[in-house]
């Protein structure tokens, strides 16, 4: 059990990424704090498995863009489970938006959900981790922290902000034995990335499933395995890194060389 006696905080446990992470980390013995907009309803199967295996899971539903709510929740969770050893931040609000027409409200919403929550969660768990001089903070980010989407610039801006937050936190919290890294996630099987990021301006997501060199998209389970690695002491020398998990998608450059069935 690689995470026995460890407490993991997952910020969005309801989506497919969150569910896969919850399943994999609980298999390795982690106790879990799960922020769930559904109040656990979307996690019924996962929660049943966790409890059947004798693990602990605390389901909460707080506004992660409120520093006070995050701090109060984690203080209560510390009383119940202990302080946080691993933070998995995986907020990912994507809205169609162009630079020239995006409304202020939509832009600020993207920053709030994707970046502001990362700051408040990092600040709160960082204080707990500093006290014990250990911990791992993992941001599930996006290749669009670096590569423009052509369709959702506000998403790219917010993930770019998280990228630099991670660098600053890795430098400061690293002095207390805390590792801070980002996973720059590419397209996944079953996630309909073509709809999320499809654009009249960019052809990046046209036939995107064949732009992965082996024409085989990854899954949320692949992501969960990487999160597990970054959660354990096996990654003790990985800090301040951006790990691209896209199967080579961004390396594509010649459509006529795509590997088609």
From TrEMBL:
Keywords: Oxidoreductase. InterPro entries: NAD(P)-bd_dom_sf (IPR036291), SDR_fam (IPR002347). One of its GO terms (molecular function) is oxidoreductase activity. Transmembrane segments: none annotated. Belongs to the short-chain dehydrogenases/reductases (SDR) family. This is SDR family oxidoreductase. It comes from Paenibacillus arenilitoris.
